[in-house]
Amino acid sequence: MSARPLLSVEDLRVDFATPKGVVEAVRGVSFDVGREKLGVVGESGSGKSVTGRAILGLVRPPGKIRARRIEFDGIDLLSTDRRTLNQIRGGRISMVMQDPKFSLNPVITVGKQIAEAYRLHGDAGRKAAKRRALDMLAAVRIRDPERVYNAYPHEVSGGMGQRIMIAMMLSPDPDLLIADEPTSALDVTVQMQVLAILDDLVTQRGMGLIFISHDLNLVASFCDRVLIMYAGRIMEVCDAKRLNEARHPYTRGLLNCLPRIDEPGGNLPVLNRDPAWVDQRL
Amino acid sequence: MIQVRDLSVAFGRGAHAVRAARDVSFHVAQGESFGLVGESGSGKSTVLRALSGLLTNWTGAMTVGGRTLGPRRDKAFYKLVQMVFQDPYGSLHPRHTVDRILGEPVAIHRLGDADARIARALENVGLGARFRYRYPHQLSGGQRQRVAVARALILEPKVLLLDEPTSALDVSIQAEVLNLLERIKRERGLTYILVSHNLSVVAHMCARLAVMNHGAVVEELTVDQLRAHAPTHAYTRQLLTASLGYDRAAVERFEDFAESA
Amino acid sequence: MSENVAGASWKGRGLRAWLLVDSPESLFHARCQRLYLSWRAFSANPIAMTGLLIIVALVLAAIFAPLITGGNGTEQVLGDRLLPPGAAHWLGTDELGRDIYQRIVWGSRITLYIVGLVAIIVVPIGMVIGTVAGYVGGWVDNVLMRFTDIFLAFPRLILALAFVSALGPGIENAVLAIALTTWSPYARLTRAETITIRNSEYIMAARLQGASRLRILYGHVVPLCVSSVVIRLTLDMAGVILTAAGLGFLGLGAQPPLPEWGAMISTGRQFLLDQWWVATIPGIAIFTVSLGFNLLGDGLRDVLDPKSEGRA
Lengths: 282, 261, 312
Hints:
The complex is a heterotrimer. Chain A is an alpha/beta fold. Chain A is 36% helix and 24% strand. Chain A has two domains: 7-92 and 176-279, P-loop containing nucleotide triphosphate hydrolases (Rossmann fold), CATH 3.40.50; 101-173, no CATH class. In chain B, a hairpin with a 6-residue loop joins strand 1 and strand 2. In chain B, the strands form two sheets. Chain B has a six-stranded mixed sheet, sandwiched between helices. A four-stranded antiparallel sheet of chain B has the order 2-1-4-5, with helices on one face. Chain B is of the alpha/beta class. Chain B is built from ten helices and ten strands. Classes of the chains: A alpha/beta, B alpha/beta, C mainly alpha. Chains in contact: A-B, B-C.
């Protein structure tokens, strides 16, 4: 990459102390993200969500984050002070999570929440924040921004709720967006529509996007590059368009065990987990 | 084997009534795998619930195995038709061991020989004896779903209703469970009705499918027609496009198929 | 999600290995494992253990009363009345010369008797009414809940007074009065849990096997309500003891010469200023046992809370 990457992660490790011993959720993950769409794919327990949260320091004790380096635009996120971290969080790096039902405050109107998010990261007054919120709602293709501005989260559908989340998270104009399974709870057509909005916004603003998902197919068709994670480590990195040429047996196994509309039925090749993968170093 | 005609289910009354299923009709031959595809709110699960007897306020006509169904079901019906649920974390009683979970249907129907039946059922779904006395929280998602399948099969039914059986599972585990379901169907000559929002899963498992939207059957087609990308209804075409992966240009042409009167 | 191969075989490695192995070999084995893990969680909490210790001490004192005391506390030695705690009488004597230590120990039997009897009456009635109301719903639910509401409305002590004045004083009548005013919350609690449970998929699965309502209620619903009921019961016991003591204080519970702690406070009242031990020591006993039940209940809640059900 010619330019300096937006985010640089080197040897990220996240441990959780549990009554049964220490659980290593992330075991030495390193990658760079530029102004591109990077997909992080893995099954449950692979550590993909924890990686996303660790970047923003959103892992609560007893979780412990260690890394050789987590650098965002030249700023070392591990050693920076709390104030700068809070400014970056939400202001320059934003996060969209899976279910808007759980990420939106149910007793505050949607518009107020977006406006609040905007004001937290700037010096806007109330009127300016409201205008900004309405602009963002229009940017995510909500047809009646005024009505939705005054609606409560339970009054909007899942797809709209996720668009509202995107509006909220993008209103402070961040440089990097981390999306953790943003469309997994949505119907497939709504999923496509929300992804299209995300695609446009990310491209228009020149943002970086880390797209975490369990859906390999979706990530391959939506993102530019793909990271495959397993047991807390990265198994393979490749260009999305060349995913079919992937060489790691885990990636191949995942690709092969997907049922496809275009292929006849019959036995799906089962993924055989090679214990050697757990100790593999990329 | 299964005939459904003009099945309608409505919740609530008057102007605010929600019509979860509207004049749904289809038939399934014996030994066939029939798919019901739709997004959330399409009514596909409602149809299964009405068929299985979990829902009693439906109108229309349903026959299974030649017998017309009334609002309630008897024990003989449950020996014929069984169901596997979506959530492996919710369909097993948290305080019962696997042994108890599998032994209960045997006890209810007084089949006897419980010990041998349970052992056989566990073997059949690829779980060994070492899972027999575990509690659900000691099992992984895939293992729980296998127990759910074993439970459904222990009464030796002829029809299995599958309500999104793999939606909550990882992709690699999904493959194992789909293979298991496929093998069992072949070995026992079962009839399946598979409900899913995932078109690929339905296309993999079923020979014929019905697409539902807002409670009504939009189109019935064979899997070959689907594979040839030749569905007739626009909604089915849209669903198919969306299921194939992200395509920015295609999304522009998406319509909102709102509920018709 | 990988299997714990190391824990697969326990043979030759002793009891602890047997209790921690991944694959139990029988229902008994599985239950022992669950109990062991619950015990480990419980015993890690010092406050809960304190509560347990107090209650265990109470039970042991009741069981071994003849062994740890000289008499049964009813022997009156008027020459020794109102002696302070000392070598001969560890906790002093009361106004009739009876040894207070003996009376406290033998009084623990009465306390346990009252607490046990109330529990045995209250839990089955409350759970049956609650589960039936919650599961069946409709008019049955309405009728049962209004019935429950009626009993909920009675103030405990007043009802006890009314009962006892109608039927005469005595432990059993006091227990009946207490039980009648204690069962309602259990019905409500169980009903609320049942309503949540009845829409679960495992209940649907049971219905789809042809399980009768009775089987579902008894085999599926009740086991899930037991935790909340047990927690509530232990916390209620403190209140029950206090109510029984109150009744005893008013002369409506256990009758003399039975060494009921509340009655002891009542008769010792008049000597409070000069011979404080006569009334205070039974008071401390009541306080300690109530505290013990409260701490035990709190500890049980941490272990049995259904929200932490998923933790092995």
